[in-house]
């Protein structure tokens, strides 16, 4: 008791919960860099060495970091830069330019951004940016004037590197890589991309100037590592203010991870994707369920979160459909089967729609249709030939006591029978396809 | 003695036809369109003729070069500061002396001065002679600084109008100590700025002019006969002379006031001048002793006018056809007479312009001048018996005297200049004649805006800010150990001492360019080769060597310009860059093209061949190919003296992308850089390492062989070696290593760089992703096609899931899996908006996929 007091750890539960939420959210949303990059130590070392040589020795380099989305490319680079900044020698010397292929969609914009980030616009005075050509000449002149021993090394980070390769003539890449291969201002070009074939995008003269260093982030964690990762991501650090709460929390995380249903859910995630970003999304869903009333993550939470993240987006859409819309979809599915994927028009769908209505022996079914299909004239609803097709024929047989039940029933029936329901949703939503 | 009064100045527009005629008079000095409107070329017409068709008039000219056109290296040889308006006789053969008559702008008057050093250091010392071995374009002219009235003076006077004329006359009062001559002053004031004066006006002359201008504001045209002035000391005489001189411009000499004196001038002066000039000329330039033909013509129009033509057989051995010139002059006289009549009559009684001789320095100088003039008079007397001779042999005495005189004049000039400065622009400290001129004109003519001062003559300072990467706060660390040293040396950017394995190519390019430079001709060369075979490096090496050769005068100097198709945003920017590197001018693409066209299309006493390196030629391709056309067309012009070296990657570029007229101009001088063989690569690495022992021999050979087999790209080779040193460094802790880069390190580096990541990526993929790939292959096999829709593949995937005992995934999940594979480019996908209907293809071979999955 006295110990607790000494540590001043007893906080109200609400306070603790908000602390937990804040801390874990920061972690899961990638706002906080991990202390050590996990699973990519070798790559980290390689990149750090490389950039350090640029910063300290003034050696020009170029490197590509390649890895699938969510593999931690940016995280790796940020870790390296953070570590680099800790070294005094590097910190004072390195200029950084960050470009993103999604933002700098052409060389003109990219050049302006580079000029801005290098603070070269000061040299131009009030007339900051001239024409594209002037800009290019300006930047090249600036880079050309530098030399290895006297100029500050500049680090160019090109996020979404593959998009830069689509710029006209790859002028920017050529020039940056050319500078990195000639005795001009020392620069390091770091490209981040998820495309494995990125080198094939480069023109051969650009390619020749690239040093062909690639750092691949293709980690292959086992399931136990994956589970461990979940554990560490959820557990609270030692410096959490309320020590007791932290211990309780961590213990609950332990039990959570040992739960069979949780393990199944996580394994399913692991099978689907090994990247950590999707795992973080899952944990975020769980975390958001934590409240004062429920201080801790229960296995049910995680299972529910898993169910939500695996939910079929298209099937979910069917939940909100009216009966008539469902009928349309069913009719379309029928036509799709009949015509083997050939396109069909609204008239055909409409004709198909009348079949189930007429086929209904049950009066309530007819009533159901009559009530809900204002768009369809009553006589047409009742007329029409028999249908012996499975999908539509099932509609009358469904339980129709209550609307909501009917909907769900229809969805289940449809989903069971038709694997590709969403196609028809698309048809409904996109008139062009009808 | 070498006086030339060939300049007929017409005033106003009404005389234009006459000007035309005048322009074509042989023996005249003319201005010819240059690349720059502000500084036309100067030349003397030797002969006029029509071309074969007779439609186009051409002229054979003798070129003169301006100081600014003389290469710096040669300028030094002059041994003094040339005046900006000074021109030099051009003897080089490298320039075509045939010009299109259309390009002649106007006549100028050129004053020929003695070769004397500028005032301050002059005294009686003989002018420093430039090296006799001057290459084609030795600076010939006498120092502009010392305008001797005695010295043969050619003066160029572009048509002044009345005001201008007057102003000019006044202006001449203080021609700059160095070279400002009356002609220049006129030119400046006439806003033509074209006139090039070879020599400055003599002191006497200037004095005369001053007086004259004060007295005769109305005189418009004057033939300037420089020879006379010396003997005139008294103000009256001076003024008369000035009048005459002014008239002389139009080839009319007014002798009304004192005909006898006028007549006496040429005679008395000639002997003096000639000697004066000849020695200088002989000493400095390849001038032959000139012969002078003096023609006196008097038009007995009421006894009032005499036309005097001084014919000069040029010291440069260009004989001026007497009759033609004569005719022209007569004609001019006719034209002018009326005017002269009108103008001259009222002019005489005029207030003498107050001379600002109060200032001490001025007084000092003037006293000196007076002394000198006395001396001159004596000399003249001595020489007077030679009056009638038409040709003289120079004597030493005369030379001396003239030099003295020159000095004197210089003193006067400076004096006047100072006065002037005091008068209006105290701040204008520049002593360059140009600025003086400008100042003068502005001071005299208020309507001329001061911004006129920013004349083209002054080098336009580039206003572009000079960008700079900030310098580092801490010094770069030097390589500390062998591996780091090796890495530094192996970096592509480190410039090797020599380029091994490209000796033959080097030799070919060198001799090609050298011969073109030596001959003063032009040509194109096309260099091709895959990237990383040393094309650009070799050319640059050649240029370095040639530059060195030029520096030690083994070959004529040349300009080297480099443009890179990749380093410009648009093919037409090539013009802009070339122009900027050539002249420093900035212009739009169209304007730059026009200027370059002019520069390379027109003849000029251009001293230097231009060597243009066009890298990445294929990027200069445009639809009409006019950029490439121009680049290859310019060297074929007679006067261009342009050597174009083009570099591109593909050997058959001319055939593939160039239309015939472009390809044909490019010619057949081609060179192809073969990819390096493994031995060459090895040699390159060895030479770069240069005895730094960092690699095992086998390791080097492995790298070389591997790279040679793949691409022959030297850059690749160096990069691999560099990476290997890093790997070696990392494993240095391992006791088994020797500290040298061994086979294992190289192998690792090679694997890193050459191995495809696809297989690793597949191995690292998640289970569902692997299943999906499997499903893709299964579906391909089923269809017998290399393409399937997602829908089809997904059916297979579901089946596989059941086989594997996995829970079937939903379609959304399946799509997500597919997208992830597509982002890595393991699969090629259509745009994802197509959903389940998008088509899927493999970007890897099926075998690779199966191999990766099996090994799993």
Automatic annotation (TrEMBL), chain A:
Pfam families: AAA_16, ORC4_C. Gene3D superfamilies: P-loop containing nucleotide triphosphate hydrolases. Its main location: nucleus. It is found in: Nucleus. InterPro entries: AAA+_ATPase, AAA_16, ORC4, ORC4_C, P-loop_NTPase. Residues 368-400 are annotated as: Disordered. Signal peptide: none annotated. Residues 59-220 form the AAA+ ATPase domain. The keyword DNA-binding applies. GO terms for biological process: DNA replication initiation. GO terms for molecular function: ATP binding; DNA replication origin binding. Keywords: ATP-binding, DNA replication, DNA-binding, Nucleotide-binding, Nucleus. GO terms for cellular component: cytoplasm; nuclear origin of replication recognition complex. PANTHER family: ORIGIN RECOGNITION COMPLEX SUBUNIT 4 (PTHR12087:SF0). Belongs to the ORC4 family. Component of the origin recognition complex (ORC) that binds origins of replication. Component of ORC, a complex composed of at least 6 subunits: ORC1, ORC2, ORC3, ORC4, ORC5 and ORC6. ORC is regulated in a cell-cycle dependent manner. It is sequentially assembled at the exit from anaphase of mitosis and disassembled as cells enter S phase. Interacts with DBF4. Interacts with POLQ. This is Origin recognition complex subunit 4.
Automatic annotation (TrEMBL), chain B:
InterPro entries: AAA+_ATPase, AAA_lid_10, ATPase_AAA_core, BAH_dom, BAH_sf, Cdc6_C, ORC1/CDC6, P-loop_NTPase. GO terms for cellular component: nuclear origin of replication recognition complex. Keywords: ATP-binding, DNA replication, DNA-binding, Magnesium, Metal-binding, Nucleotide-binding, Nucleus. The keyword Nucleotide-binding applies. It is found in: Nucleus. Its main location: nucleus. GO terms for biological process: chordate embryonic development; cilium assembly; DNA replication initiation; mitotic DNA replication checkpoint signaling; regulation of multicellular organism growth; response to yeast. The keyword NADP does not apply. Residues 403-417 have a biased composition (Acidic residues). Pfam families: AAA (PF00004), AAA_lid_10 (PF17872), BAH (PF01426), WHD_Cdc6 (PF09079). GO terms for molecular function: ATP binding; ATP hydrolysis activity; chromatin binding; DNA replication origin binding; metal ion binding. Residues 123-145 have a biased composition (Pro residues). Residues 437-451 have a biased composition (Basic residues). Residues 22-147 form the BAH domain. Residues 123-155, 207-226, 382-478 are annotated as: Disordered. Component of the origin recognition complex (ORC) that binds origins of replication. DNA-binding is ATP-dependent, however specific DNA sequences that define origins of replication have not been identified so far. ORC is required to assemble the pre-replication complex necessary to initiate DNA replication. Component of ORC, a complex composed of at least 6 subunits: ORC1, ORC2, ORC3, ORC4, ORC5 and ORC6. ORC is regulated in a cell-cycle dependent manner. It is sequentially assembled at the exit from anaphase of mitosis and disassembled as cells enter S phase. Interacts with CDC6 and KAT7/HBO1. Interacts with LRWD1 predominantly during the G1 phase and with less affinity during mitosis, when phosphorylated. Belongs to the ORC1 family. This is Origin recognition complex subunit 1.
